[in-house]
Amino acid sequence: MDLTTQYLGLTLRNPVVASAGPLSQTVAGVRELAAGGVGAIVMYSLFEEQVRRELLRDAELEQAHDESFAEALSYFPASAERAEPGVADRYVDLVRRAAQAVDVPVIASINGSSLGGWIEIARQLGDAGASAIELNIFLVPGDLRVTGDEVERQHLDIVTAVRRATDLPLAVKLSPFFSSPGNMALRLIEAGADGLVLFNRFIQPEVDVEALTVKPSVALSSRFEGRLPRTWIASLARHTNASLAATSGVEESSDVVRYLLAGADVVMSTSALVRHGAGYAHSLLMGLQDWMARHDYASVDQFRGLLAVPSDVDADAVARAGYVAALENARRVYGSIHR
Question: Which residues form the Dihydroorotate dehydrogenase catalytic domain (predicted)?
Fold first, then answer.
């Protein structure tokens, strides 16, 4: 049975990919994920804010001593020659060691929301052995005066800048909260993305009603969350040759199958692997193979995109018909509850 798949121009042994998360923070964790059977591993993210803080600290150090005697300047090394490796240096080194430790592609992850020198790190990641870069654009405009056009333009500018900085295959992980997610997806591909990861999950705060405070909250995804990315993957699959990666809502092998039927090239998971351990990827793959055997499929390519929206139909009408059908079904199921 052939489980191989193509993603970002890379040939993967199977379509189950470990997405960025706590399990890929160490070389030992990366080895465990590879041993568990995943087709590729996305490293945990290097955050723009981490790099910016370090650059600012170095700049302040140099500025504080720029009036010193020339003889004394040598005691304050430039940021590129700091005594200890910085956060970006440590991340690049981790990617290098991870890539050397496993026989599956290692994908570096950069999380940012603006342009800046931190993008140049993309060049170093290629030299370190990363097979590709996943650009996680986590942009939440707090300024209520910022328009949707400005948000979209900032996304496109970031992708364009990273594309110029590296020749590595580039995937963009984006939010579903655009007025037209499908159009935005196609524009990101035009700007230089080789693939899309659908979708980013915004970390939303929780309200503590006793302490009367707002606190950060992180929750693992649920199976229900897979419906939104599947909808857009099914809509995009027939309209682009770029790679489509699914993420969120993967708990069982049937969820992997659903995403592949919608047209995903790979199916990413963090929550299920955190819940059940890195070896759970093997269970997802066994379930996928069992389903393929029951339906007489010899390869993933034979059924990938089988349920994607055809390119020659009125997509708006299809979406509207699905909406109406769902409401009619809901009336049948729940309509008599209050009678």
Answer: 96-292
- Total Cβ atoms within 10 A of residue 5: 25
Q: Which residue has the tokens 């979406």?
A: 319
pLDDT at residue 333 greater than cutoff 70: no
DSSP string, 146-200: --HHHHHHHHHHHHHHHHHH--S-EEEEE-S-SSSHHHHHHHHHHTT-SEEEE--
Closest residue by Cα to residue 95 from 106, 85, 103, 86: 106
Check whether 251 has a pLDDT greater than 70: yes
pLDDT(337) > 90: no
Q: Please indicate whether residue 335 or residue 91 has the higher confidence score (pLDDT).
A: 91
Q: How far apart are CA 14 and CA 100, in angstroms?
A: 20
The b-or-e profile of 216-235 (16+ CB within 10 A means b, else e) is eeeeebebebbeebbbbbbb
Q: With b meaning 16 or more CB within 10 Å and e meaning fewer, what string describes 96-106?
A: bebbeebebbb
Question: Poorest-confidence range of 25-34, 70-79, 111-120, 183-192?
Answer: 70-79
Give the Cβ contact number of residue 295 at 10 Å.
10
Which token pair is 165? Answer: 């900085």
Q: What count of other Cβ atoms lies within 10 Å of the Cβ of residue 173?
A: 27
Check whether 338 has a pLDDT greater than 80: no
The fourth-level CATH superfamily of domain 5-308 is Aldolase class I (3.20.20.70)
- Within a 10 A sphere around the Cβ of 153, how many other Cβ atoms? 12
The Cα-based distances of 281 to 19, 226, 235 in angstroms read 12, 17, 27
Q: Which residues face 112 on adjacent strands?
A: 137
Which run of H or E residues covers position 317?
helix 315-334
Go through the chain and tell me how many residues it has: 339
Report the predicted TM-score, pTM, of the whole model to 2 decimal places. 0.84
CB 86 within 8 A of CB 57: no
Identify whether the C-beta of residue 19 lies closer than 8 Å to the C-beta of residue 44.
no
